[in-house]
Structures are given as structure tokens and as C-alpha cells.
Specification:
13 strands; binds zinc ion; Rossmann fold; 6-stranded mixed beta sheet; 4-stranded parallel beta sheet; about 400 residues; binds pyridoxal-5'-phosphate; globular; 15 helices; alpha/beta
Length: about 400
């Protein structure tokens, strides 16, 4: 028997695994716990005899058996060694964990397979989320596969067209709100319980149980624990999930040590970075967050307390980057390595470079940047601007000249 429960990160009150709650009675965030000491049947050999995806690590997931699991074969994303990018960043040993290769093109799928499977087990009537785009796309896909009704609320002005199209095509009811993401989430939160819908934002601790598997895969693929793991931070769930994964690997004895977690935000939406850097004792929300990286355009991150623990416990770091730095990193990653990521995902590379430049990150350590989403989601004109495109007439001389000058270069 696997023992699983929910526990408040502040007062440590315990709730049964089948109680639907998004916060403790004290207001604290909830975390899913698995009694890891009761697991005596795990080893790398056992894991590696299975396919590389979220479910390879089943013993460390919060389900008793593998019946009625909803999956699109999520996880198992590539870990690329990037020498040229590393050189540009000023570090020796840089890897990209490319989460854009998930079924709907972002890491959200790792959490959604667990969240939707949990929703089925709880027999809820429908699922909902507020989203800057990727959560909506992912929830829409998984709820379609599970056959559960799905409503997603997205802010009006800022959702990338690819993400919006995904949610609509997968058949979710898409509600566009004339307001910010933070307003959307607070509105959704107020009605979910009343209508008996299940909330699958990252405040839902079951989702993070799937997202923690990115840590398992990084160690699995790298064969060791890296010095640093960097990722973009929006609602602050994923950095906490990855950190939970690294801690659990150590607890069950499959690794020695843990990496420093590196959280990156955009300058126009950096309440978490400011909290850590300035040492504020509570989050100071940003009312009108603004950045080209729409997936992390969040001013009031709900999981900030979990993320703060992750940074503190891991001896981690934070940095904020400008939109220009994000776009530069996106272009370098694509043109030097052939890895195409959306702007939020490029923030992890831009921020890591900044921390290498400032000497805060040790350039001799192994560094893994998690690139959270696929470039195809966001073909924003702003992002295309300045990239080369030659328009030509159907003229042989012209074509020959262009080819000759390129080949000779
Ligand atoms: C959701 C998302 C993030 C932010 O993750 P949080 O858990 O909200 O901090 C970053 N990048 C991409 C591409 C995302 O979709
Ligand atoms: Zn509590």
C-alpha cells in the first residue's frame, strides 16, 4: 500500500488524498505527500526497464495502481548538450531540457496527465482553469482524451494565437476575459466549488506531482545531479515541482545531492525575483504585468511561498531579464543549436547567462536550462521582426547571385 496524503506547507495540517481542497484552512498552500520510506522496490534498473516518460517513475507518483490513467505519452523530452550555446553563455557544460516536445508543446502536460487522472478518480463533473495559454491548451487536450467537459478562461489581450487555437481545437469552452490572468484566476477560484468543477491551475497540488518528473528525467538522462537547474517562473508552481522532484530522488537514495534552483522572471513581471532579491517579507504583486513572454506575464503568483522555499532550500538564485534579452536568447538557442522555444522558455537561458556574467553562477558547473514551451505556439510579429526574409522576383540571375554570395561566405 502506497500512503498518500495532502499536507499544508505552513501549519502541516493533513488532509485525506480524496478531499478536494486548494488551500489549507489556515490559508497555506497544500502539497501532496507520498510515504517515500515505505517504498522499498525502486531502483534505476527498474525505472530504466520502462519507457522514458512521466510514468517511468510510477512508484514516485501519487497513485496506487495504473488503472484508468489518462496519458498522451507526456514527458520523455530530450536533454540536449549545447556546446555553442554554452560558449555564448560563458559556461562549460550547458544542457537544454526541451519541454516543448511534450504532446501539447509545454511542460504543462506532465502535470495535466496526473491532474486529469485525479479528476476522474474523484468523479468530478468538469474541469476548469485560468490560463495565459499553455495550461488551457494542455487541459483542453487531456479533458478531451478523458471525455470530461472543460472550460478555460484566458485574458483578452495577451494570449499567443497558437495556444488559443489549441484550446479551441481540442474542444474546450474558451472564455476570453477582458482583464489580466490574475483577475481570471481569482474569478475562477470563487466559482469552482459552488458549481462542483475541478480547478486545474498549479494551485492544485496534484498537477505538481506530474511536473516534478522533469527532475527525475534530468538525473536519469544526465547520469548525475547538475550544479544548477534554471527555469522561467510565472505562477511559481514549476520551480517548486522540480525542486520537490530533486529532493525526492535524494530521499529515496537514487541520487546524492541536489542542484541549486535558478528562477528567472521578465522585468515587467518580476514580483518573485524582487521578493528574493530585495528580501521583502511578503510578495508585492505587480498590478499590470507586461512582457513579450506571455506565459510568465503574471503579477500575483499564487505559489510564491513554495517557490521561495525551493530557492532557499536549494541555495538557489533568481534574476530578471528584459524582453530584448529574452528575444536574443531565443534567437541564439534557435540559430546556434536548432532548438526553437517560446519567449518564456528562452528566459531561462537569458537569465542564466546574466548570472554567469555577474559571477553568481559558477561557470564550471553543469547547468541545465529547462525550456518550457515550443516556439510554434507564438509566431508573434514582434518576435519575427528583424529576422531575415528575402522577397525576390522569379529571376534566375537574382537567385544565382543570392546563392553564390551565401555559399562563398
Ligand atoms: C506555465 C509556464 C511557465 C511558468 O510556470 P509556473 O509554474 O507558472 O511558474 C513558464 N513557461 C511556460 C512556457 C509556461 O507555459
Ligand atoms: Zn495550514
Amino acid at each position: 500500500m502506497k500512503k498518500v496524503w495532502q499536507e499544508c506547507i505552513e501549519c502541516h495540517s493533513i488532509y485525506d488524498a480524496d478531499v478536494i481542497k486548494y488551500k489549507c484552512d489556515c490559508g497555506g498552500l497544500l502539497e501532496v505527500h507520498i510515504d517515500l520510506r515505505s517504498l522499498d522496490n525502486i531502483s534505476w534498473d527498474k525505472f530504466r526497464s520502462r519507457k522514458l516518460n512521466v510514468w517511468r517513475y510510477f512508484e514516485l507518483l501519487p497513485f496506487e495502481d495504473s488503472n484508468n490513467i489518462i496519458s498522451l505519452d507526456e514527458g520523455g523530452t530530450p536533454l540536449y548538450k549545447c556546446e555553442k550555446l554554452g560558449k555564448w553563455m560563458g559556461a562549460k557544460d550547458v544542457y537544454i531540457k526541451y519541454e516543448g516536445m511534450n504532446p501539447t508543446g509545454s511542460f504543462k502536460d506532465r502535470g495535466m496527465c496526473i491532474g486529469i487522472t485525479k479528476a476522474l478518480k474523484l468523479r468530478v463533473k468538469g474541469v476548469v482553469c485560468a490560463s495565459t495559454g499553455n495550461t488551457a491548451a494542455s487541459l483542453a487536450a487531456y479533458s478531451a482524451r478523458a471525455g470530461i467537459p472543460c472550460i478555460v478562461i484566458v485574458p483578452k489581450q495577451i494570449v499567443a494565437i497558437g495556444k488559443l487555437f489549441q484550446a479551441m481545437l481540442y474542444g474546450a469552452k474558451v472564455v476570453r476575459l477582458d482583464g489580466t490572468f490574475d483577475e481570471a484566476l481569482s474569478l475562477v477560484w470563487k466559482v469552482v466549488e459552488e458549481v462542483g468543477a475541478y480547478l486545474l491551475n498549479s494551485i492544485n497540488p496534484w498537477r505538481l506531482e506530474g511536473q516534478k518528473t522533469v527532475a527525475f528525467e534530468i538525473i536519469d538522462q544526465l547520469g548525475k545531479v547538475p550544479g544548477y537547474v534554471a527555469l522561467p517562473v510565472g505562477n511559481c508552481g514549476n520551480i517548486a515541482a522540480a525542486w520537490k522532484g530533486f529532493k525526492e530522488m535524494e530521499t529515496v537514495g537514487l541520487t546524492d545531492g541536489t542542484p541549486s534552483m535558478v528562477g528567472i522572471q521578465a522585468e515587467g513581471a518580476s514580483p518573485f525575483v524582487d521578493l528574493v532579491r530585495e528580501g521583502y517579507d511578503t510578495l508585492r504583486p505587480v498590478e499590470m504585468p507586461n512582457t513579450i513572454a506571455s506565459a510568465i506575464r503574471i503579477g500575483r503568483p499564487v505559489n510564491w511561498k513554495k517557490a521561495l522555499l525551493a530557492v532557499k532550500e536549494s541555495d538557489g538564485l533568481v534574476a530578471k531579464v528584459s524582453d530584448a534579452e529574452i528575444i536574443e536568447a531565443q534567437r541564439m538557442l534557435a540559430s546556434l543549436e536548432g532548438i526553437g522555444v517560446e519567449p518564456a522558455a528562452a528566459a531561462s537561458v537569458a537569465g542564466t547567462k546574466k548570472l554567469i556574467d555577474s559571477g553568481e553562477i559558477d561557470a564550471n558547473e553543469t547547468i541545465v536550462c529547462i525550456c518550457t514551451g515550443n516556439m510554434l505556439k507564438d509566431p508573434n510579429p514582434e518576435l519575427i521582426k528583424g529576422l531575415e526574409l528575402l522577397d525576390v522576383a522569379p529571376n534566375l540571375e537574382l537567385i544565382r547571385d543570392i546563392f553564390t554570395s551565401l555559399i562563398k561566405q
